[in-house]
Amino acid sequence: IDDKDKVLKGNSLPKIFGGFINQLSYKGLEMNLHVQYALGHYVMNQEAANYMDFITRDNSASLEGIKEITYWEDRVRTDAYPMYNPWSPVHAYQVNQDLFMEKANYLSLRSATVGYRLKGKNQFGFGNAKGFRDMYIYLTGTNLIKISPYTNRDPELANYYGYDNGLSLPLV
User: Fold this and answer.
1) 91 φ/ψ angles, rounded to the nearest 5 degrees
2) End-to-end CA distance of the chain
3) Cβ(116)–Cβ(29) below 8 Å
4) What is the CA angle 12-86-48, rounded to 5?
5) Strand-pair partners of 30
6) Over the stretch 59-115, which tens digit does the pLDDT of each residue have?
7) Is 143 left (phi over 0), alpha (psi -120 to 50) or beta?
8) How buried is 10 (Cβ within 10 angstroms: 0-12 exposed, 13-18 middle, 19+ buried)?
């Protein structure tokens, strides 16, 4: 196996990207939804490659040999990858192979707001229309739901090269 065997597969940029905002209202009750989606792109799960290639990392004399503070967390599905002899001189778990390339499509509920508008003067007994005339009470949440076939935490955490090294803070 040499460089002639390498084939370019996938792309880290989505082919289709978009979103929509919806506002529903009934009498004084309002609901606003912001949904975003991305389709047709791939992410290299570098965190899984590093986790599976622990022997090479542990024996290196570089900073990459230091275990992360989150190393004890069980974020990598090891049953999704074939098991090789970790002591073999062949480095079977290299991040640049399609073994760690995953679909990164997602559908995300970016934000949702539910609110109620209280209208009319003197509804709280504040005198002759002084003080509060209208009041809007609301509850907002961001990054509430993400649906994706990606096995790691979030496909949006990949860097601009398309690698997810697991060091970014999750959105959801």
Assistant:
1) -85, 95
2) 41
3) yes
4) 25
5) 25, 115
6) 767 766 666 666 667 777 778 888 888 777 777 788 888 889 999 999 999 999 999
7) left
8) middle
Per the listing, tokens 């990459």 go with 64
Tokens of 54: 């622990």
Return phi, psi of residue 57, to 5°: -70, -40
Distance CA 88, CA 86 (A): 6
- DSSP characters for 113-136? EEEEEE-STTTT--SSS-S-S-EE
Residues listed for the chain: 172
| Residue carrying the six token digits 């490659």 | 49
Bridge partners (DSSP) listed for residue 114:
31, 139
Reply yes or no on whether the pLDDT at 28 is more than 90.
no
Q: How many whole angstroms separate alpha carbon 21 and alpha carbon 112? A: 10
